[in-house]
Design goal:
Length: 221
């Protein structure tokens, strides 16, 4: 697969690349944010709104985290609580991501891949430093960076993520990702939420197809 990276854009709204599924006609106010490779993005969604996280080029893992708006980042999506409710299985369409207050926050309403991870932490600066790589971007730092306006002070405050499109059967990290160009997962917010994504910068050992590429977030659905 050819994995050419599109030109990085800086505005908050973009025309949709052909590989991003188009919203239906009822979502006239939908907007698309292209998140540059190895970077993050934070956004708010209101109760009842839907949004999609899209892999534009394929084989790109996306770390995802979410908090209940107005709780000072205290009530957040928890993989431990979600695993408990789903008996350890990856959530299917119609199932939810649960918070540390034991409340469902985000319901999956569509999913073209059905392969995600609830066990691995976000990559973090020391992981790369121990590999002898200085100054490498990381998912934990990406999320902390974009969540700073909401009160996050350090990447050490980042919760364990829902790793979208990450293939880790039996806790074995597979280099070949399951997602193809244009694949997406769609959520519905059950409460007002603040969400963050990181276009995973991990480019070692063939992970992310060996080349980190842009992703997209489509909101207002």
């Amino acid at each position: 697969m050819t994995r050419n990276r599109p030109v990085e854009q800086t505005d908050s709204t973009y025309s949709q690349p052909s590989s991003i599924p188009q919203p239906n006609a009822s979502a006239a106010k939908a907007t698309t944010k292209v998140v540059p490779a190895s970077h993050g993005h934070a956004f708010k969604v209101r109760k009842g709104e839907k949004f999609r996280v899209v892999d534009i080029h394929g084989e790109q893992v996306i770390d995802f985290a979410a908090w209940v708006d107005g709780t000072d980042l205290v009530e957040k999506v928890s993989m431990a609580y979600t695993r408990y409710h789903l008996s350890g299985a990856t959530p299917a369409v119609g199932e939810c991501l649960w918070t540390c207050k034991d409340e469902p926050l985000l319901r999956i309403t569509d999913d073209t891949v059905h392969v995600h991870d609830m066990t691995f932490m976000s990559c973090f600066p020391e992981l790369y430093e121990k590999e002898g790589i200085k100054g490498h971007r990381s998912c934990a730092s990406n999320i902390a960076e974009v969540m700073e306006p909401y009160g996050m002070g350090s990447y050490l405050e980042v919760t364990d993520p829902f790793n979208i499109f990450q293939n880790t059967p039996n806790y074995a990290l597979k280099a070949i990702g399951p997602s193809k160009a244009g694949d997406y997962i769609e959520f519905e917010a059950l409460e007002d939420s603040v969400c963050a994504v990181s276009c995973c910068p991990y480019d070692l050992h063939g992970f992310n197809g060996g080349k980190v590429t842009d992703i997209a977030v489509v909101t207002g659905l």
